Amino acid sequence: MTARRAPDRRKMIAAVHAAAKARGLFDDAYRAMLRAHGGVESCRDMGVRQLMAVLDHLNGHAPRDTGRRPARPIAKGPDALAKARALWLDLWVLGEVSDASESALEAYVIRMTKGAPGQGGQGVARLEWLAGDHLDRVIRGLRGWLGRVAPALGRPDRPVDHPGGQREQPKVRVAREQARRLVALGVEPAGQAPVPSDLDNAALDRLLAARGQRLRDAMDAAGIAAPLSRHLQGCP
Fold it and tell me: Quick check: 105 and 88 in contact, CB under 8 A?
């Protein structure tokens, strides 16, 4: 009787690397996947069973189509993921989505990525697994969503340079749009200055959160469900 040969860990590790690359997993997303399915963040620290579990996971997803040139990512690593979260929170503070949680954003990510080339109808299930053109697709989707429901924002994730060297941050435009919506709901008087000019980034975050809550309270009092833009169609 011939003894069964033990699996070659080196070949298994090489297979993990190849499958992860085909899946579009790099850097933080790659390490998060290893941690989730192998228990550690490096293949070198895994035993055969852990590597098999990782391979089983990776082989359950079709590789991306490499026959076309991938879209250029908007940004890399944590900064791009932070941008996606920021755009989602912009939708929240404007009354466009009913849930600001990570799980709600992940549900959106799944919908946006399951139709991507090579996904086989399976979306990216975790935010930390987003990378490359999958992350690009999500950010473009969120940016386009904001552009449709709040055209006055312009490019909702890019500063605008005005004559005289003044640079207007996206959060200022979001605060201005909040003010417009509060006026339309009768919560604030028309003509009130929407954003003090001396606010730093942290103060802007506090202002957006406070106005977002006022917007939510007004929506609840009036029985208005998200998206608020549907209710405001035709309002000045």
Answer: yes
